[in-house]
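Hello again, I could really use a second opinion on something today. My current little project is about how a certain protein chain folds up. You're getting the sequence in one-letter code plus the fold written as tokens. Here's the protein in full, and shout if anything looks odd to you:
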Amino acid sequence: MKPPPFSYHRGRSPEHAAGLLRELGPRARVLAGGQSLLPMLNLRLAEPAHLVDLGPIPDLGFVRRERDRLVVGATARQSAVEHSADVRALVPLLAEAVEHVAHPPIRHRGTVVGSIAHASAVAELPCAALALDARLTLLSADGVRTVDAEEFFTGPFSTVARSDEIVAQVEFPVAGPGTGQAWSEFSLRRGNFPVAGAAVSLTVADGRIVDVSIAVCGVADRPVRARAAEQVLRGAVADEETVERAAAATTSGLAPRAHGDLAAHILPVSAAPVPGWAYRASVARAQVRRAVTTALTRAGGTR
């Protein structure tokens, strides 16, 4: 497999890279770690005429706290986030989700922001960003704008970012007192994309769940919030019966998807067989049960 021909451009600064994207037009793509884009090039599933590389730009690989937010720069490697003591302490869901991404060599090259921007329907990091109410900063020659994760994803490999915009950084809220977070997924093989996965962040006070956010991947054309499950949990006593009812409600409101429709969303990134929607929905419910149970334990709540 060989990629299609393209011109390579080195970004010298974020502003320079944004200017290149504007100058080169809609057939230009951003290159960060390349662990999502390059396989698609090799399979001829993407055929950009130009690649604008963010790698040479200094000071974009940061992971730092800014007040009540953890901010991850465009070229911060997944392995750096995975092993960051600050990330594990401040946004444990992000660190746990990164641990499940592919294999260590890929995490040493792949970037957190790049995976989120790639917007795979079955990837861990877009799902975690959605559950964490992350905020993305988009940079173009026109300036900067911010977008909430819930508004960012529009479909498989599709977002609100324009072709001339760079996702310069992603901000994650820092977990507060009484908050527990967890990631759970099932994949056919270790390192494969999950059949389905669940990201949970919840807060417990006086034995009740006072706030909760749940996102699932693998059951739609993008990561989605499990609103019905959240509604079951919010304000409820943190017990096993509540968890079971929430898990059962995970896919409520989601339209079953035809197998061919699912395959079209997933096959571009996986050579493994694509299970049908009913099976994926069943797996998603099980992952929500596991993730909520773990998050409650970490929050100090009752199971």
